[in-house]
Amino acid sequence: MPDDSHTADLESLWRATQERLAESVPESTYRLWLEPLEAVGADSETIYLKAPEGIRAWAERRYTALIAAALAELGTDLQRVSFAAPREVAEAAPGPELNPSYTFDRFIIGPGNRLAHGAALAVAEAPSEAYNPLFLHGPPGLGKTHLLAAIANYLHDNAPGLSVRYTTAESFTNEFVAALRTTGAEGFKARYRDIDVLLIDDVQFLEGKPATEEEFFHTFNALYESGSQLVLSADRIPSDLSTLAARLRDRFEWGLTVPVEPPNLATRLTVLRHLVEEAGIEIADSDALSELANRIDANVRQLHGALTRVIAHASLLAKPLSSELIAEVIPRGSRSAQATSVEEIQQQVAERFGISRAELIGSSRAATPLRARQVAIYLTRELTDLSLPQIGRLYGGRDHSTVLNSLRRVEASLGEDETLTEKVAELRTAIHNPAAG
Hints:
Blueprint: H1 4-24, H2 27-34, E1 38-42, E2 46-50, H3 53-73, E3 80-82, H4 86-90, H5 114-125, E4 134-137, H6 144-158, E5 164-168, H7 169-181, H8 185-193, E6 197-201, H9 210-225, E7 229-234, H10 246-252, E8 256-259, H11 265-279, H12 288-295, H13 300-317, H14 323-329, H15 342-353, H16 357-361, H17 367-383, H18 388-394, H19 400-413, H20 418-432
Parallel strand pairs: 2-3, 4-7, 4-8, 5-6, 6-7
Antiparallel strand pairs: 1-2
Helix pairs in contact: 1-2, 1-3, 3-19, 5-6, 7-8, 11-12, 11-13, 12-14, 13-20, 15-17, 15-20, 17-19, 18-19
């Protein structure tokens, strides 16, 4: 960590940089995209910036060069701009990015997840002393990933001496395969067996991969025997992971197995109030959020997606966010609480972009199929319960990182690109009301 003088120097430099940025772009652009950025570290040639999750991808892609130019004008030696935290840079091994907004404070507790939240917090406060392993299970979109990341973030902040690694079973598999093809398995084993806490998401992804399953079995044993904490999540209970070896399923049940269940009405309403307050959105009438909470009862992710749809329509139609608008956008009994077919999403998006479904899920990198594919992936994530690995398999076998990149690109463009924002809003309506499409 930098000493106090270096911290003061960095703060002073960043204030000067911000002043130059404010002079080089319109005030609204500066307020929205550049003012929220924070300088969190620097080395010989790189400044590390932190950005709120909602603007990070866009700020990184759109304004990195502008920030670098402002630094150069100030005569600094910093030539590179990175939106990775210094800690993330130090952990050179690939893997999913840990979302800093996933904390215990931001997790909405209800009857369906109270036990899971309590168990996760107990593990964070006393690793290897409470429940080991802790196994969380339930359908996608209910907060399992949030809890795993909350444990990791809590430990990074409160027990920096512990080595903590969060990953997904898909990333674990990809790293293992890459290691076998290049440097060998020893470096891989060192990364995963010489740590204090391992959190691994979506372990059902190990099914059907005997070589990776074997490696994970030995990793599990090594960590457990050394007293390290293991936290796992899956979309179902261990005994239902039928194609995993019995010895691995048994180990998953050595500690505490906890379900994460869909939120009840009161929890859904609390989630909506939290999202609205966080986004600074004005509600036209007091019953609007109750109306939405009653119409979406699947999971938190779909609830968030429904709110996003309503906000988009309110913006595009210049209407207040009201019960009437919610009824218009998400008709009761339409398809709001039913599973949306991925094939339907793909077909609607392909037609709207003027391409075939085969082009949509194929390998073309041409502008139109690529953008259509990103939008389809975004809508699939929003409108279904599928995990990122499951979505990737339905879009030509793409991996977790490709799916995540598609999501971020669409999220960064929504609100900035009026044509795309309108097209996505129209697609949501068409998918929920096929006859109207």
